[in-house]
Design a protein that fits this description.
21 helices; mainly alpha
């Protein structure tokens, strides 16, 4: 036996070193563990007892009720019925289930959302709801192939349905899967297909408060054509809605829906901590007055948007940019609810699925951002059950701050930035003195 054979035999007898854990393994394990408290809580409070009614008396897919009803109103032209809570409840009892509770539900979207309900309006609610879920799932699958990347890894497929943030969206049958596809797909296409990206991102006219960071992202990334296309398509969608359905639903929306939504931005929202997740409500729960809580909310929102604008051009990985933008989205509007956590969850799964195969300079940052994005709903739920306050929005800062720190400039660059800022401030001070 020669020396090479002896060395090979010794090597074979040595214990094998365990392969290092990959981010995909961690994502799967975290989601699996997270299913225990999530599914238990949903079973206790939201299980279906007599299709399509849940134990609470609400219908399964409760938020899709609005879209489906809106589509029916758009076909018939009877828009006023959507905004009369008592008439709306009686109509839903006839269409869905006679024992459905009257919960004061009224139409809760701009009239631009009528287009989402139109394809389902001629179907029964029981037939329309599964199709709505299929449409959302197909949109999310498209997000994983939109920019021509490699096929989606099989490990990610089940978690597109079972990740905690996605489970929340599925329970409410909300638009979160669709808006996530618009958000992620539009930002992925902004550079190479800016007009298609604009057409997608303009879809946030159905939920304007969810699209507030999109202009910041496009400007920070210098995607001028996508920015212009988004603005043009947004105006086009609104005008098309006016031409198709008239001005009446817009008046009803401004006079009924918006005041109802603004009325939720009070301590009343603390009664539903599993739904209202903006930091505004967290500050209210901590004992601050509504005025102080709102000021603190906008302080956090302003910091997050500034951090986003500074960090985006300096991050190397496109998927981490989108995840950062998704986390910032949840920190901007005070009217933010738990089902929107599907956005950072799916963005996080994509960032994990398409992590670089070789040396990854952003590996530690990627691990932290993805884990927070996936586990925030569970941490929020458990904290809410223990304290009555859901800290999920502030957890998004655990994505924003590390991303900012990872690109924070060196001392020389900081000095240059300080010098530029001081010159700008001096210029405006001189102009102000001259004006006086």
């Amino acid at each position: 036996m020669n020396r090479l054979d002896i060395d090979a035999a010794k090597l074979a007898l040595q214990p094998r070193r365990a392969l290092p854990w990959q981010l995909s393994h961690v994502c799967g394990l975290l989601c699996l563990v997270a299913l225990i408290p999530m599914l238990r809580y949903y079973y206790e409070h939201f299980r279906v007892v007599a299709w399509p009614l849940e134990v609470s008396g609400f219908p399964a897919g409760r938020d899709f009720v609005n879209l489906w009803s809106g589509g029916r109103a758009a076909w018939s032209g009877n828009y006023a019925a959507l905004f009369d809570a008592k008439a709306y409840a009686l109509d839903l009892q006839q269409l869905i289930h006679p024992t459905m509770v009257e919960n004061g539900l009224v139409w809760s979207y701009p009239p631009t959302a009528f287009w989402l309900g139109l394809p389902f309006a001629k179907l029964s609610f029981s037939a329309a709801l599964p199709l709505w879920y299929l449409a959302g799932f197909a949109a999310v699958l498209w997000v994983f192939r939109v920019d021509g990347t490699k096929p989606m890894p099989l490990w990610a497929l089940p978690w597109l349905l079972l990740a905690p943030g996605v489970l929340m969206a599925l329970y409410f049958a909300q638009t979160a899967l669709l808006t996530t596809a618009l958000f992620v797909g539009g930002l992925l296409l902004a550079r190479d297909r800016p007009y298609l990206a604009g057409a997608l991102l303009a879809g946030f006219v159905i939920k304007p408060h969810m699209g507030l960071v999109i202009p910041v992202v496009l400007l920070a990334m210098r995607q001028w054509r996508a920015f212009a296309a988004t603005a043009v398509f947004s105006v086009f969608y609104v005008l098309l809605t006016v031409l198709a359905f008239g001005i009446e639903p817009w008046g009803l929306y401004l006079n009924v829906t918006l005041p109802k939504h603004l009325g939720l931005l009070t301590p009343w929202g603390l009664r539903l901590p599993w739904m209202f997740t903006a930091q505004y409500f967290q500050f209210l729960g901590a004992g601050f007055s509504t005025e102080v809580a709102m000021r603190l909310h906008w302080l956090v929102a302003g910091f997050s948007v500034a951090a986003l604008a500074f960090t985006l051009p300096r991050l190397r990985d496109q998927n981490l940019r989108i995840l950062l933008a998704a986390a910032t989205t949840l920190l901007v509007s005070p009217y933010m609810q738990s089902y929107e956590l599907a956005l950072p969850a799916i963005a996080g799964l994509r960032a994990a699925a398409y992590a670089p195969a070789g040396d990854d300079p952003d590996e530690s940052l990627r691990w932290g951002m993805v884990i927070v994005a996936l586990m925030a709903p569970v941490v929020g739920l458990l904290t809410m059950l223990a304290t009555g306050v859901n800290p999920v929005a502030l957890l998004m800062l655990a994505i924003v701050v590390p991303a900012l720190c990872s690109v924070w400039p060196e001392a020389t660059e900081r000095q240059a930035w300080t010098s530029r800022l001081s010159r700008v401030l001096a210029f405006w001070c001189r102009r102000s003195q001259r004006a006086i």
